[in-house]
Structures are given as C-alpha cells and as structure tokens.
Amino acid sequence: MSNNSDKVNLGSILSVAIDASQKAGTVIRQVWKSGKLGVEWKGVNDPMTEADVQAQKLIFGLLYKAFGKDLPMVGEEDTDVPETEEIPNLNLLDQLKIPEEYKNVDKKEVCVFVDPLDATREFVDGNLPAVMTLIGISYRGEAIAGVMFQPFVGNDDDSNGTTIYGMLGMGTNVPVKARDEKDFVIATTRSHATEFLEKATQAVKADRVVKVGGAGYKCLLVLRGEIDAYFFPIPGTKKWDTCGPEAIIKSAGGSFTDAHGRSIRYTIDTPKPNTDGLIVTLKGHDDILAKISSVLPKL
Ligand SMILES: O=P(O)(O)O[C@H]1[C@H](O)[C@@H](O)[C@H](OP(=O)(O)O)[C@@H](O)[C@H]1O
Ligand SMILES: [Mg+2]
Ligand SMILES: [Mg+2]
Ligand SMILES: [Mg+2]
Predict the structure, then answer these.
(1) CA-CA distance, 241 to 12, in Å (whole number)?
(2) What is the complex's ipTM, to 2 decimals?
(3) Distance in angstroms (rounded) separating the CA atoms of residues 184 and 287
(4) What is its EC number (predicted)?
(5) 286 marked as binding residue
(6) Which of 180, 248, 262, 193 is nearest to 220 (CA)?
(7) Is the pLDDT of residue 32 over 90?
C-alpha cells in the first residue's frame, strides 16, 4: 500500500502515531530544557507554546509522509507542515493483532485527531506528569485507535517516556484496572469550574473530587483505577482532546460519552468543541448518567 493509495491499514496508522508521539515527546522535552517556551495566549487560560507547534509539525509531517497529504487530519494548532527528514515507522505493531476489518479501509473514511501537547497550561506551570501527546484515529466517525504519550513520565524503551495505546478489538498495551473501593471518586477540571459543574457534582454524590489539569491525564487516572470517573459534563474539551483517549478507554472495555450518555462522533466535519461534555468510566457509567439526568437541561 503506497502512501498515495486510497486504502489504508489502521494498524499502520496507529504504528506511525505511536512513533510520531514519541518523537514529538523528544521535541517537547527539548523545548522544556531550553527554558524558552515561547508562550502565546490563544484565550483565557488557553496557552500555546513552541513545543505545541513543533510537536504538531513533526506529527503531521510523519503521518503525511507515510500516508499521503490526502489523509484527513485535524490538529489543535494552526501550523504549516514542512517536509520531515524523520522516517515514519509503520511496523511497530504485530499485524496479527490488528482486526481484519481495519487492515484495508478507505482513507477518506478515516480521520486523525492530533493534540500535540495536551495540558499546555500544566506544561507552562511545570506540572509535567500531566503533559501528553494525544493522537486519535477515527473510522466512519467512531474513535477506533489512539495513543497517549507522556514525555516526562517513566522510561519507555529508548523513547524516554510512557506510551499508552489501544485499538478496538485489540485492547491496550498497558494493564487496566477499574477502581473498586466503597467510596466514589471523580476527577474534574482544575481550572475551568462552573456553577453548573458544582451542581452536577453534588447530583452524582461524589465522596471525593480530584481537581487536575489535562484531559488525557484524567482519562489515564480512570485507566489506572485511581478514580471512578472523569466527570466533565460541560463544554471545554475539543475532539483532539478526546478521540485518542476515547479509543483507548473503549478498547479497555470502558465507556466514553457526553453528559447525556450519547456517543461522540469524530469526522473531519464534526464541530471541534465537545459542547455536551464528557463522562469517562471503566464501570458504573449508567449509574452516573441516571444521577446527573436530574440536573441536565432536557434535550
Ligand atoms: O491541549 P490543551 O489545550 O492543553 O487541552 C486542554 C483541554 O482542552 C481542556 O479542556 C483541559 O481543561 P481542564 O484542565 O479544565 O480539564 C486542559 O487541561 C487541557 O487538557
Ligand atoms: Mg491548547
Ligand atoms: Mg488538549
Ligand atoms: Mg493541546
């Protein structure tokens, strides 16, 4: 399958996404170590740095080099895409583990969502474990596969970071454990709370509320069984924040919906804001939806 073919193997795209996220992580660490973050404010509490921009250019360059510039792609930042000298690695995954239905699909029915640096505010504040590169792969509008790469956590092979990936029908590369305690603990925004969020939090009767930055990072806390739910039933996240993490959560058997329990769609034309919020769990999803329904506006 050459890069100008109109067919693609989603397993190969996931391989290049993993490779690109690790290489982007190296760039992010280099910018951090330089001390010259080049922070620009896109909006209130919404920074962009040189690391966000350079990481996105690298990721787009590798995916275009591997699959052609007609690969539908959405990135958070508005950057040009220079030719890259880097070589994309299409062979990181065992093709025997890739579901047959994903091996030869129409490229125009795929869309890759790239958040080159999730939790930029945390990056600027020096809260580095929450920083991640997120890449999601959708097919016919459904989040199918994704990778979350933590450049400042752990020491993953020679990529100096921690790679978490998953694909529907294949599972994840990391052990996943649902939280199983008597109390009910949720994670939500550190910096974008609203009156309605407080009301909704009371409606679901959380025993403890963990306030941390990073949409990807809160999904990781669910995967690791540190919280029962990522609870954010208000606007704020975008499709690039959620496509990759959703695919990983669902490939681990979890649930990922908006506040009304509806699936989130990911096509090139889908509006980027997740206006109806997020609820992310490994278990107990319906119980949360039942409790929050009493305070949600009727559809
Ligand atoms: O990639 P960035 O812009 O850092 O992504 C943001 C999310 O868009 C935003 O929703 C998250 O807000 P909360 O901290 O309130 O959960 C922010 O942490 C980043 O993930
Ligand atoms: Mg941002
Ligand atoms: Mg983000
Ligand atoms: Mg970002």
Answers:
(1) 22
(2) 0.97
(3) 11
(4) 3.1.3.57, 3.1.3.7
(5) no
(6) 248
(7) yes
117 annotated to a ligand binding site: yes
Q: Is residue 118 a known part of a binding site? A: yes
Which ligand is the nearest neighbour of the Cα of 237? 1
Is 209's pLDDT higher than 60? Answer: yes
Distance of alpha carbon 178 from alpha carbon 252, whole angstroms: 10
Residue with tokens 């029915």: 109
Domain that holds residue 266: 185-292
Angle between helix 10-34 and 50-67 (nearest 10): 150
End-to-end CA distance of the chain: 45
d(CA 244, ligand 2 centre) in Å: 15
In a domain? residue 2:
no
The answer to whether 52 is a known catalytic residue is yes
> At 194, which CATH number?
3.40.190.80
Quick one: pLDDT at residue 3? 75
How many helices (H) and strands (E) would you count in the chain? 7, 15
Q: What's the CA gap between 50 and 39, in Å, rounded? A: 7
**Catalytic, out of 19, 49, 84, 120:** 120
CA of 209 relative to ligand 3 center, distance in Å: 21
Q: What is the CATH number of the domain that holds 154?
A: 3.30.540.10
Within 13 A of 291's CA, how many CA atoms are on the CB side? Answer: 17
